[in-house]
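pls design
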Protein backbone atom coordinates (compact mmCIF):
# COMPACT_ATOMS: atom_id res chain seq x y z
CA UNK A 1 0.00 0.00 0.00
CA UNK A 2 1.51 3.34 -0.97
CA UNK A 3 2.06 6.05 1.61
CA UNK A 4 -0.36 8.32 -0.19
CA UNK A 5 -3.02 5.67 -0.08
CA UNK A 6 -2.46 4.96 3.60
CA UNK A 7 -2.78 8.63 4.41
CA UNK A 8 -5.90 8.99 2.36
CA UNK A 9 -7.62 6.24 4.28
CA UNK A 10 -6.76 7.77 7.65
CA UNK A 11 -9.48 10.34 7.53
CA UNK A 12 -12.69 10.00 9.45
CA UNK A 13 -14.75 10.82 6.40
CA UNK A 14 -13.38 7.82 4.62
CA UNK A 15 -15.36 5.65 7.03
CA UNK A 16 -18.55 7.42 6.01
CA UNK A 17 -17.73 6.93 2.37
CA UNK A 18 -16.99 3.26 2.90
CA UNK A 19 -20.42 2.63 4.39
CA UNK A 20 -21.94 4.53 1.50
CA UNK A 21 -20.19 2.17 -0.88
CA UNK A 22 -22.01 -0.82 0.57
CA UNK A 23 -25.21 0.80 -0.59
CA UNK A 24 -23.82 2.04 -3.89
CA UNK A 25 -22.78 -1.49 -4.78
CA UNK A 26 -26.38 -2.74 -4.55
CA UNK A 27 -27.94 -3.42 -7.94
CA UNK A 28 -30.18 -0.62 -9.14
CA UNK A 29 -33.51 -0.91 -10.91
CA UNK A 30 -33.25 -1.41 -14.68
CA UNK A 31 -33.94 1.81 -16.55
CA UNK A 32 -36.82 2.05 -18.99
CA UNK A 33 -35.80 1.61 -22.62
CA UNK A 34 -36.50 4.27 -25.24
CA UNK A 35 -36.67 7.21 -22.84
CA UNK A 36 -33.22 8.82 -23.04
CA UNK A 37 -34.25 12.11 -21.39
CA UNK A 38 -35.88 10.30 -18.47
CA UNK A 39 -32.87 7.98 -18.19
CA UNK A 40 -30.51 10.96 -18.10
CA UNK A 41 -32.62 12.68 -15.42
CA UNK A 42 -32.65 9.48 -13.33
CA UNK A 43 -28.88 9.10 -13.73
CA UNK A 44 -28.29 12.69 -12.56
CA UNK A 45 -30.69 12.22 -9.63
CA UNK A 46 -28.76 9.12 -8.59
CA UNK A 47 -25.49 11.05 -8.84
CA UNK A 48 -26.90 13.77 -6.62
CA UNK A 49 -27.98 11.15 -4.10
CA UNK A 50 -24.58 9.44 -4.12
CA UNK A 51 -22.61 12.68 -3.72
CA UNK A 52 -24.87 13.58 -0.78
CA UNK A 53 -24.45 10.32 1.14
CA UNK A 54 -20.76 9.98 0.25
CA UNK A 55 -19.76 13.22 1.93
CA UNK A 56 -18.51 15.18 -1.10
CA UNK A 57 -20.09 18.33 0.32
CA UNK A 58 -18.11 17.96 3.54
CA UNK A 59 -14.92 18.96 1.77
CA UNK A 60 -16.05 20.51 -1.54
CA UNK A 61 -18.96 22.79 -0.48
CA UNK A 62 -17.95 26.01 1.32
CA UNK A 63 -19.12 26.29 4.92
CA UNK A 64 -19.82 22.59 5.50
CA UNK A 65 -16.79 22.08 7.77
CA UNK A 66 -18.12 24.98 9.87
CA UNK A 67 -21.63 23.53 10.13
CA UNK A 68 -23.25 25.81 7.54
CA UNK A 69 -23.03 24.43 3.99
CA UNK A 70 -23.82 27.09 1.37
CA UNK A 71 -25.83 25.15 -1.18
CA UNK A 72 -25.98 28.18 -3.51
CA UNK A 73 -22.28 27.51 -4.04
CA UNK A 74 -22.64 23.74 -3.85
CA UNK A 75 -19.42 21.79 -4.61
CA UNK A 76 -17.65 24.96 -5.77
CA UNK A 77 -14.51 24.11 -3.76
CA UNK A 78 -13.00 25.24 -0.47
CA UNK A 79 -10.09 27.45 0.53
CA UNK A 80 -9.49 25.55 3.76
CA UNK A 81 -6.15 23.76 3.30
CA UNK A 82 -5.39 20.16 4.33
CA UNK A 83 -1.79 19.91 5.50
CA UNK A 84 0.25 16.71 5.71
CA UNK A 85 3.34 15.03 4.26
CA UNK A 86 1.88 15.70 0.79
CA UNK A 87 2.05 19.48 1.35
CA UNK A 88 -1.21 21.46 1.42
CA UNK A 89 -4.20 20.41 -0.69
CA UNK A 90 -7.53 22.15 -1.32
CA UNK A 91 -10.85 20.50 -2.18
CA UNK A 92 -11.33 21.65 -5.72
CA UNK A 93 -14.20 23.30 -7.58
CA UNK A 94 -16.34 20.44 -8.94
CA UNK A 95 -18.83 22.62 -10.82
CA UNK A 96 -18.58 22.67 -14.62
CA UNK A 97 -17.05 26.15 -14.88
CA UNK A 98 -14.69 25.81 -17.83
CA UNK A 99 -11.87 27.90 -16.33
CA UNK A 100 -11.91 27.16 -12.60
CA UNK A 101 -13.99 23.97 -12.34
CA UNK A 102 -14.17 20.63 -14.15
CA UNK A 103 -16.20 21.86 -17.12
CA UNK A 104 -13.47 21.02 -19.59
CA UNK A 105 -13.44 17.32 -18.60
CA UNK A 106 -15.67 14.65 -20.10
CA UNK A 107 -17.77 12.25 -18.05
CA UNK A 108 -15.35 9.44 -19.00
CA UNK A 109 -12.32 11.46 -17.86
CA UNK A 110 -13.92 12.12 -14.48
CA UNK A 111 -14.78 8.42 -14.03
CA UNK A 112 -11.21 7.46 -15.01
CA UNK A 113 -9.81 9.82 -12.36
CA UNK A 114 -11.83 8.08 -9.60
CA UNK A 115 -10.60 4.67 -10.80
CA UNK A 116 -6.92 5.61 -11.00
CA UNK A 117 -6.40 8.34 -8.39
CA UNK A 118 -5.01 10.64 -11.06
CA UNK A 119 -6.75 13.97 -11.62
CA UNK A 120 -8.01 14.49 -15.16
CA UNK A 121 -5.04 16.89 -15.65
CA UNK A 122 -2.69 13.93 -15.08
CA UNK A 123 -1.41 14.77 -11.55
CA UNK A 124 -2.05 12.47 -8.53
CA UNK A 125 -5.16 13.10 -6.40
CA UNK A 126 -3.70 14.18 -3.07
CA UNK A 127 -5.15 13.28 0.35
CA UNK A 128 -7.61 13.65 1.92
CA UNK A 129 -9.55 13.05 -1.33
CA UNK A 130 -10.78 9.51 -0.52
CA UNK A 131 -10.45 8.18 -4.07
CA UNK A 132 -9.34 4.65 -3.00
CA UNK A 133 -12.91 4.19 -1.70
CA UNK A 134 -14.45 5.46 -4.92
CA UNK A 135 -12.24 3.24 -7.08
CA UNK A 136 -14.28 0.25 -5.84
CA UNK A 137 -17.61 1.64 -7.13
CA UNK A 138 -19.52 0.25 -10.10
CA UNK A 139 -19.19 1.96 -13.49
CA UNK A 140 -22.85 2.86 -13.31
CA UNK A 141 -22.47 4.68 -9.98
CA UNK A 142 -19.29 6.50 -11.03
CA UNK A 143 -20.91 7.64 -14.28
CA UNK A 144 -23.94 8.87 -12.31
CA UNK A 145 -21.66 10.97 -10.10
CA UNK A 146 -19.75 12.39 -13.08
CA UNK A 147 -22.99 13.22 -14.95
CA UNK A 148 -24.36 14.93 -11.86
CA UNK A 149 -21.22 17.07 -11.41
CA UNK A 150 -21.39 18.14 -15.07
CA UNK A 151 -25.07 19.11 -14.60
CA UNK A 152 -24.35 21.50 -11.69
CA UNK A 153 -24.69 25.26 -11.95
CA UNK A 154 -21.18 26.47 -12.92
CA UNK A 155 -19.59 28.61 -10.20
CA UNK A 156 -16.50 30.68 -11.03
CA UNK A 157 -14.10 30.01 -8.15
CA UNK A 158 -10.42 29.18 -8.38
CA UNK A 159 -9.26 27.31 -5.26
CA UNK A 160 -5.56 27.78 -4.39
CA UNK A 161 -3.22 25.38 -6.20
CA UNK A 162 -1.80 22.55 -4.06
CA UNK A 163 1.37 23.59 -2.22
CA UNK A 164 4.28 21.11 -2.40
CA UNK A 165 5.82 19.72 0.84
CA UNK A 166 8.22 22.13 2.53
CA UNK A 167 6.92 25.21 0.73
CA UNK A 168 5.44 27.79 3.14
CA UNK A 169 1.71 28.54 3.08
CA UNK A 170 0.17 31.18 5.35
CA UNK A 171 -3.54 30.48 4.74
CA UNK A 172 -5.79 28.52 7.16
CA UNK A 173 -5.07 24.77 7.25
CA UNK A 174 -6.22 21.65 9.04
CA UNK A 175 -3.07 19.80 10.05
CA UNK A 176 -2.76 16.27 11.41
CA UNK A 177 -0.64 16.09 14.58
CA UNK A 178 1.99 13.30 14.79
CA UNK A 179 0.11 10.04 15.53
CA UNK A 180 -0.29 8.67 19.08
CA UNK A 181 1.60 5.35 19.49
CA UNK A 182 -1.59 3.28 19.02
CA UNK A 183 -2.44 4.97 15.70
CA UNK A 184 1.07 5.09 14.29
CA UNK A 185 1.38 3.13 11.04
CA UNK A 186 3.20 -0.15 11.74
CA UNK A 187 5.85 -1.48 9.43
CA UNK A 188 5.38 -4.32 8.77
CA UNK A 189 1.65 -4.17 9.51
CA UNK A 190 0.44 -5.86 12.71
CA UNK A 191 -0.02 -9.63 12.35
CA UNK A 192 2.47 -10.02 9.50
C1 LIG B 1 -12.08 14.48 2.99
C2 LIG B 1 -12.27 15.53 1.98
C3 LIG B 1 -12.82 15.15 0.61
C4 LIG B 1 -13.96 14.41 0.34
C5 LIG B 1 -14.92 13.76 1.32
C6 LIG B 1 -14.08 14.40 -1.10
N1 LIG B 1 -13.05 15.09 -1.67
FE1 LIG B 1 -12.71 15.35 -3.68
N2 LIG B 1 -10.98 16.30 -3.27
C7 LIG B 1 -10.51 16.64 -2.02
C8 LIG B 1 -9.25 17.33 -2.15
C9 LIG B 1 -8.41 17.88 -1.01
C10 LIG B 1 -8.97 17.39 -3.53
C11 LIG B 1 -7.74 18.02 -4.20
C12 LIG B 1 -6.68 16.94 -4.40
C13 LIG B 1 -5.47 17.46 -5.12
O1 LIG B 1 -5.22 18.67 -5.16
O2 LIG B 1 -4.74 16.63 -5.70
C14 LIG B 1 -10.07 16.74 -4.21
C15 LIG B 1 -10.16 16.60 -5.60
C16 LIG B 1 -11.25 16.10 -6.27
C17 LIG B 1 -11.38 16.00 -7.70
C18 LIG B 1 -10.34 16.47 -8.75
C19 LIG B 1 -10.78 17.80 -9.32
C20 LIG B 1 -9.81 18.39 -10.29
O3 LIG B 1 -9.85 19.62 -10.47
O4 LIG B 1 -9.00 17.68 -10.88
C21 LIG B 1 -12.61 15.47 -7.97
C22 LIG B 1 -13.22 15.20 -9.35
C23 LIG B 1 -13.24 15.21 -6.69
N3 LIG B 1 -12.39 15.59 -5.67
C24 LIG B 1 -14.51 14.70 -6.53
C25 LIG B 1 -15.06 14.31 -5.30
C26 LIG B 1 -16.35 13.65 -5.17
C27 LIG B 1 -17.30 13.39 -6.30
C28 LIG B 1 -16.50 13.37 -3.85
C29 LIG B 1 -17.61 12.59 -3.19
C30 LIG B 1 -18.02 11.33 -3.84
C31 LIG B 1 -15.32 13.88 -3.15
N4 LIG B 1 -14.47 14.44 -4.07
C32 LIG B 1 -15.11 13.79 -1.78
C33 LIG B 1 -11.12 16.36 -0.81
C34 LIG B 1 -12.26 15.57 -0.65
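designed seq:
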Amino acid sequence: MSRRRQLGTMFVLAALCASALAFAAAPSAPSAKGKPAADKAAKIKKGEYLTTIMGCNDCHTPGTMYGAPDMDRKLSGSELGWKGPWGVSFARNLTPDSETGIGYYSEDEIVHSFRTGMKPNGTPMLPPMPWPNFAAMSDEDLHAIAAYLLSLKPVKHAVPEAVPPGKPWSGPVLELPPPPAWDAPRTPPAGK
